[in-house]
Amino acid sequence: MNPIVSIENISKKFDKNYVLNGVTINIPKGSICGLVGPNGAGKTTLLRIITSLQNADSGQVNVNANVFSGLIEEPALFYELNASQNITQQLILYGLEDEFNPNEFLGYVGLEDTQNKKVKHFSLGMKQKLAIAMMLVGNPELIILDEPMNGLDPQGIISLRNLILKLNKDGVTFLISSHLLYELEKIATDFIFINHGEIISEMTSEEFSNANKGYVQLEVNDTDSFKRAMEDLKIPYEEVDNFKMNVFSNDTITDLIIRLNSYGCIVTKCFNVETGLEEFFIRLMDEDDK
Q1: pTM of the full predicted structure?
Q2: Which terminus has fewer CB within 10 Å in the chain: N or C?
Q3: Which positions ≥6 away from 87 have C-beta within 8 Å?
Q4: What is the pLDDT of residue 43?
Q5: Within this chain, do residues 64 and 104 fall inside the same structural domain, yes or no?
């Protein structure tokens, strides 16, 4: 299947500093693609280039969608109007005011009961929903969102999450940048990791699950014999404190204990630790910064 967004060797400088440096990615059609990176990594600049809000210095962007929409900064809403009137303005913009009832779009995002309430009195979550409803007027194949869950309360986050999943089920592709990695992990089908303006990893959610099986935390009686065993067996680990170690191995705990015993290292405590996108992201960034 052809990607809905194809980016080849995009670079962007501000002054003499590269914000993006040779970025090449493909966004699969029908996916919910999470763009993950620390502050200053180049995420928003990349989204602005994809949505033509900013030009790249070099490289090529191809968006294979007849209509796509993006919410990169504050929603562009008419705050003195109600939700229905906002949708009407969008319908007029597309020349569709005689073909659709605004309530069709409001009903899809759960705002059909807002009636005459002005948008300036909406919660942040309601504003985000209204902005997405306005995007739907053009029947987009692709929606791009930059930090859409920032500032939302738990109910607002759940509501927006369910809306994204609903739209994706109906065929809309999403590219989402978010620092709320525990939320992104719940919905994303694909991940792109960016750091210092460069792509450091791309994977599907299935590949992420296979690569992120957690680790075993051990307490041992002797760190010297433990370290000698890890070096000989080529098993990566990190030292938590003098006798506590995190071990990243495909071995079962039983096999790991037996192998350590053969080096004279006794395990006094052990348990499996499940990790999520946040822990994986931190490890990935640490490795890239070394």
Answers
A1: 0.80
A2: C
A3: 102, 105, 106, 130, 133, 134, 137
A4: 94
A5: yes
Strand order in the sheet with 215-220: 237-239, 244-247, 215-220, 267-273
- What is the structure's pLDDT at 252? 83
Per the structure block, which two tokens stand in for 157?
A: 């986050």
**Position 278 in a domain:** no
Q: Which residues of the chain have pLDDT under 50?
A: none
Q: How far is residue 246 from each of residues 17, 31, 59, 233, 275, measured CA to CA in Å?
A: 37, 34, 42, 15, 12
Q: DSSP secondary-structure letter at 213?
A: -
Range of the domain at 57: 3-207
- CATH code of the domain containing 166: 3.40.50.300
252 with 120, same domain: the answer is no
- The token duo for 209 is 């699950």
- State how far Cα 142 lies from the chain centre: 15
pLDDT, position 81:
95
What is the C-alpha to C-alpha distance for residues 240 and 57, in angstroms, rounded to an integer? Answer: 44
Determine, yes or no, domain membership for 219. Answer: yes
Among 126, 125, 124, which residue's Cα sits nearest to residue 114?
126
Q: What pLDDT is recorded for position 16?
A: 86
Domains: count for the chain: 2
